[in-house]
Amino acid sequence: MKSAIFITARLKSSRLREKVLKGICGKPMLYHMVERLKLSKLPEKIILCTSTVDQDDRLAEYANSIGIDVFRGHPDDVLLRFTEAANYHSIDTIISCTADNPFVDHRYIDKLIEFHIAHQYDFTEIVGLPFGTFSYAISRKSANKACEIKDEVDTEVWGGYFRDTGLFSCGKLYAEQTDYWPELRLTVDTQADFNMITKIFDSLSNSNGDIFGLDEILNLCRKNKKIVDLNKFVKQKKAKKIKFKI
């Protein structure tokens, strides 16, 4: 069973322009995310899934420069894009995350793959981790089926095609108690989010380039509420209601 991490990313963001290439500690945010994901032991590769739009040429070129594969597909149909990438690379288990989330946890990716495969779920999510540190597992067969039943081109938010249709077996992997903090926002959508993430990097990065863990991030945020306050007022955009052909 081949598994791979798929990072969906584009440069079109309106609230924070070209955020995935914005610099943190001298490197683009995407670089830091990829270095963290490389610590996962079970996935066979990391693939950036971006669009065929010219605007995303720089993103594709940068991903290639740091040694990860690139798949370019539909600009708006994210579900179709990473499904086509899985088909192209013959990947059985898709681990989906987005480049908005530089702290996606590599330890939980390995746990997720083991849990997803052991229970033979179609779709598996992680419950309880801080927002922006979790990922999703999807079987390629189920992803193809979801593409067949969807009745929408804009699938930036696609989880409902698995959760809400009653057609798929869905699993939940719960975070360990020490990592449980779902209210903590560790994603980047706005300048306030970016400021908060940058503050964490400034506080925890060292000259050796070691990757600090989720436990260190959580300990820092528990001890320094001023960091948490930097983006606590940011509201996550509401997901559109899914449309499917049933």
Could you explain the architecture of this structure?
By secondary structure, this protein is of the alpha/beta class. The chain has one domain (3-183): Alpha-Beta Complex (Spore Coat Polysaccharide Biosynthesis Protein SpsA, Chain A), CATH 3.90.550.10. Helices cover 35% and strands 17% of the residues. It has 9 helices and 9 strands. It has helices spanning 29-37, 57-65, 78-89, 106-119, 140-149, 160-163, 191-204, 214-223, 225-229; strands at 3-8, 23-24, 27-28, 45-51, 69-73, 93-98, 123-127, 136-139, 170-174. A 7-stranded mixed β-sheet has the order 5-4-1-6-8-7-9, sandwiched between helices. A two-stranded antiparallel ribbon has the order 2-3. Helix 2 links the parallel strand 4 (45-51) and strand 5 (69-73). Helix 3 runs antiparallel to helix 5 (140-149). The longest helix is centred in the middle third of the chain and has 14 residues, at 106-119. The protein is globular. The mean pLDDT is 94.
Helical proportion?
25-40%
Number of strands: 9
Q: Gap between N and C termini, in Å?
A: 30 Å
Strand content: 15-25%
How would the global form be characterised? globular
Instruction: Flag low-confidence runs.
Output: none
In CATH, the homologous superfamily goes by the name Spore Coat Polysaccharide Biosynthesis Protein SpsA, Chain A
Structural class: alpha/beta
Order of helices and strands: EEEHEHEHEHEEHHEHHH
Instruction: Tell me, rounded to a whole number, the average pLDDT.
Output: 94
- Please tell me the total number of domains: 1
CATH topology: Spore Coat Polysaccharide Biosynthesis Protein SpsA, Chain A
**Name of the CATH class:** Alpha Beta
Q: Radius of gyration from the CA trace?
A: 17 Å
Question: Biggest sheet, in brief?
Answer: 7 strands, mixed
